[in-house]
């Protein structure tokens, strides 16, 4: 867990990528010349906004200014961070989709907490109603029925980031299939469409290595299970010094 002085980062703050080293150097130089123009915001004892500013202040030798954040009633820390960062960051559609994919879990958690609070409030209201005397022959107010289901967390995350729920699903598919490819989209190096085509088209390096490793494990298991095959294979290794050397170097590089 990365710390910023005595504070750790709020999970919602980690939705957005950190600056590159060059960008951080530029910010540090600006803070050294002009001071820290925008305060770092903390929420519940954690840095909610300003991780880059904190690091830049450290580089510039300036004491960071940290203030508590005010979040409007009904607003969540996740929504606040998204709104704050979208205004000042120039993110591609793919980057926004990747942020929405990560934010979906947090928004789902926010929805679950809100639903729990709603049910608790309704239970208390029913208990209060039962404890009050009723007037005979007067109709009681019915409990309002829920007509529309709550929006999916995926769609809410997409809406907050300005992308469709379907785009968020695409980002999730890419991240699940190939995390390294997803990181390239998140950094802005690759568009979401290009990443999706790589999944459908030529196999990515990460996926290829995973597939080959599975094949290698199966091959080793077959060799070890057959004594004659094992003897023949080890004989080939003894005769093929180049292959033996390559395998030895690979194992040594991985510390095995």
How would you characterize the overall build of this protein?
- It is a single chain.
- With 256 residues, the chain is of the alpha/beta class.
- It folds into 3 domains: 3-88, Conserved hypothetical protein from pyrococcus furiosus pfu- 392566-001, ParB domain, CATH 3.90.1530; 90-116 and 151-203, no CATH class; 205-253.
- 63% of the residues lie in helices and 6% in strands.
- The chain contains 11 helices and 5 strands; from the N terminus they run ββαββαβααααααααα.
- It has helices spanning 21-34, 51-60, 77-88, 93-131, 153-161, 165-177, 179-186, 192-200, 205-225, 227-239, 241-253; strands at 3-4, 7-9, 40-43, 46-49, 66-68.
- Strands 1-2-4-3-5 form a 5-stranded mixed β-sheet, sandwiched between helices.
- Helix 9 (205-225) crosses helix 10 (227-239).
- The protein is extended, with a radius of gyration of 28 Å.
- Mean pLDDT is 83; it is low at 143-149.
């Amino acid at each position: 867990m990365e710390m910023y002085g005595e504070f750790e980062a709020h999970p919602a703050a980690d939705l957005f990528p950190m600056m590159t080293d060059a960008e951080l150097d530029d910010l540090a130089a600006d803070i050294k010349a002009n001071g820290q123009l925008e305060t770092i915001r903390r929420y519940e004892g954690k840095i909610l906004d300003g991780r880059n500013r904190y690091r830049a202040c450290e580089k510039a030798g300036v004491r960071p200014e940290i203030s508590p954040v005010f979040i409007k009633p009904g607003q969540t820390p996740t929504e606040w961070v998204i709104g704050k960062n979208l205004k000042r960051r120039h993110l591609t559609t793919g980057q926004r989709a990747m942020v929405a994919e990560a934010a979906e879990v947090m928004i789902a958690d926010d929805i679950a907490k809100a639903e729990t609070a709603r049910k608790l409030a309704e239970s208390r209201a029913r208990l209060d109603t039962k404890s009050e005397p009723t007037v005979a022959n007067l109709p009681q107010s019915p409990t309002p029925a829920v007509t529309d289901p709550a929006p999916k967390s995926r769609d809410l995350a997409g809406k907050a980031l300005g992308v469709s729920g379907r785009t968020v699903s695409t980002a999730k598919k890419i991240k699940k299939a190939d995390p390294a490819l997803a990181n390239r989209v998140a950094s802005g190096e690759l568009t979401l469409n290009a990443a999706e085509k790589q999944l459908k088209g030529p196999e990515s390096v990460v996926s290829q290595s995973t597939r080959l490793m599975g094949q290698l494990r199966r091959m080793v298991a077959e060799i070890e299970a057959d004594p004659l095959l094992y003897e023949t294979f080890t004989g080939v290794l003894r005769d093929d010094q180049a292959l033996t050397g390559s395998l030895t170097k690979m194992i040594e590089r991985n510390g095995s």
